[in-house]
Amino acid sequence: MKVKEVADLVGISVRTLHHYDEIGLLIPEETTEAGYRVYSDENLATLQQILFFKELGFPLKKIKEIINSPSFDREEALSLHRKMLLEKRLRLDRMIETVDKTMKHMKGEIHMSNKEKFDGFDFSHNPYEQEARDRWGDEAVDKANQKVSNMSNSQKKDFEERFNGIYRKLAVIRHTEPSSKEAQEGIKEWYEFLNTMGDYSLEAFKGLGQMYVDDQRFTKNIDQFGEGLAQFMCDSMAVFADQNNR
C-alpha cells in the first residue's frame, strides 16, 4: 500500500507517516525510484502496535525503544494492550460516574464530599508505562522529570514562569515565517531552555515539534497561548534542527 492509502485506511495524516519514517519508527518496506513509500502487511502490524501505545499515552521515543527491543514480543504486547485498555476503560467509567454525580450535586439532588468530586482523576504518572518498562526494558527516568521533582516550590514557580514566558513570546510572533531571524531566535531560546532540563538532540527537538501537531493534547495546550502556535513551533523547530545540523 502507498502512503496515502495507509493514511486513509488508518485515519492519520500522510505527514505523520512521513515523520514516523524520518525518525525510524516506521520505515516502509520499500521506497520506489520515484520516491513513493510502499508499506507491507508487516508495516501495518507495526503501525497498529504504535497506535495502541500512543493511545495509552506513550511518547514516540518510548514507543520506538519498546518495539525495537530484542525482547519485544508482539503477541505479548497485544495482551498487555488489552489489559491496559480495560484498566483505562474502568478509570473513564469512574470519571463519567463522577461527572453524573456532580451534575446531580449541582441540582441539589445528592450531596458529594470533596473527595468524591475528584474520584477517577490520577495525574501522578502513566499507570501503564512501568509495566512496559518491566517487560521490555528502559532507560532511567527522564532527566527532565527528575530535575523538576527535585526542585523546591520557588524553583518550580520560576521554572513555570520562564516556561510560560517563552510560550507567550513565541505566540506574539507566530504569524511570522518560521525561517525568519525573529522566529529562529525565539525557538533557539526554547531549545536551550529544554536542554537545561533534559538532553535533546536536534533530531529529538524536531520530533518533539512534530508531536505538538500530531498529538491533539499538545496542540490544545499550546494553542491556549495563541491559535496556530503549535503549528508555528513545529515548523520553526524543524527549520532550527535542519539549519543547525549541517
The CATH homologous superfamily of one domain: Antibiotic binding domain of TipA-like multidrug resistance regulators
How much β-strand is present in the residues? under 5%
Largest sheet: 2 strands, antiparallel
The residue-averaged pLDDT reads 83
If you consult CATH, what is the topology of one domain?
Globin-like
Describe the SSE topology:
Layout: H1 3-10, H2 14-22, E1 30-31, E2 37-38, H3 41-55, H4 60-67, H5 74-106, H6 129-136, H7 143-149, H8 153-172, H9 181-197, H10 202-214, H11 216-222, H12 229-243
Antiparallel strand pairs: 1-2
Helix pairs in contact: 3-4, 8-9, 9-12, 10-11, 10-12
Description:
- Strands 1-2 form a two-stranded antiparallel ribbon.
- The chain has helices at 3-10, 14-22, 41-55, 60-67, 74-106, 129-136, 143-149, 153-172, 181-197, 202-214, 216-222, 229-243, and strands spanning 30-31, 37-38.
- It is mainly α and 246 residues long.
- Helix 8 runs antiparallel to helix 9, helix 10 (202-214) crosses helix 11 and helix 10 (202-214) runs antiparallel to helix 12.
- Mean pLDDT is 83; it is low at 137-142.
- The chain has a domain at 143-246: Orthogonal Bundle (Globin-like), CATH 1.10.490.50.
- The longest helix is centred in the middle third of the chain and has 33 residues, at 74-106.
Provide a short characterization of the protein structure.
Keywords: Activator, DNA-binding, Transcription, Transcription regulation. This protein has 246 residues and is an all-alpha fold.
Pick out its properties.
246 residues; mainly alpha; Globin-like; two-stranded antiparallel sheet; 12 helices; 2 strands; 2% strand; globular; DNA binding; DNA-binding transcriptional MerR regulator
